[in-house]
Give the backbone structure.
Amino acid sequence: MKILVLNSGSSSQKSALFDLGPDISEDPIPPQWEGKLEWDGDKEQLAIKNASGGELRQKKQTSSGERPSSVAAMLQNLWDGPTAVLKSASEIQVVGQRVVHGGSKLTEPTVIHDSVKREIADLSAIAPLHNRVALEGIELIEKLLPGTRQIAVFDTGFHRTLPPEAKVYPGPYDWYERGIRRYGFHGINHEYCAHRAGQLLKRDLSTLKIVTCHLGNGCSLAAIDGGTSVNTTMGFTPLEGLMMGTRCGSIDPGIVTYLMRVENAGYYELDSALNRHSGLLGISGVSSDMRDVIDAVRTGNDRAKLAFDIFVHRLVVEIGAMAASLGGLDALVFSAGIGENSPEVRAASCAKLAFLRLSLDDHKNSQARPDADISGLDSPVRVLVIRAEEDWAIARQCARLNFAKAR
């Protein structure tokens, strides 16, 4: 079964094609084809490669509203051009869509139909950077591949097991009754990383207490006890928790009411400030990309140094909180763009976590390529770097659902 995965991010669009049978591997398998679009302001960058070594790279200027046409052009390379691996689009049997927010109703992989689309659209008010682009992807596939089954896999789904004390906010109780609660995000990768950690450590996942750190443009942690999510840093929206690329993470909500009351700030101004002009970008004034921030630190840029220090401070504080909610820790996992590729962030954060009985091997950390154990020899708590495999995890869940329906 040929499964196309669309993984829509706020500033990127990843796509991958997998060919899976009913006997689905526990280990990740490489896609036959993968493409990635990234947007930075008015700049667009495309990178495509296939399993045979074919590659395509392009850069161009773009304007607002061009995202769907750019994604369609990228997907055209699946069956046309130097990276093609299909004879025609009709070979694609299932399309898996990553959807960030499924709310309280959509917690399992779900075949997409009109009522599912309406629910995703309704939740766009909570996850404005993500659910809208997921809907764009769904509607694009309806035009490109009419009649092809689409399955939504939800980032919030893994966190459906959060206990009441973790998911209910200490505001008026009727908030919870109205659906205002902690949902958590990045669940597809948090769940995958927990299972992969069990494999790498040769331990039964049901016996492990794990904190997974998904650190990319968006950042979140999860406390996972025996394979079950019991706490996480993101909440009602993907804005809560850690400092991120352009998002502020948790701040005193009184700041928002102060800006509204004293400076007459409106919704769009506040939303833009909190979601697009905060985090690494807002503090450093350099970039939302940790690599650029670290380069600026090396040149003596004080604001970049402050951005790095705040990022690590918030990360360490929240790792400690996640470990406390587990009542112990067996493994700490770093994943996603920063987690996998920044030995500086891993070293700086772990240096402050010795009280959790963990330590790094400096050489292993500096040379780490996922999937790797970078712990010191005497570290009772293992520190792992695990590649984010959201596309594979989505394809695997789509295959399981589709083969189950076929039976």
Notes: The domain at 203-385 is CATH 3.30.420.40 (Nucleotidyltransferase; domain 5). The CA atoms of residues 211 and 223 lie 5 Å apart.
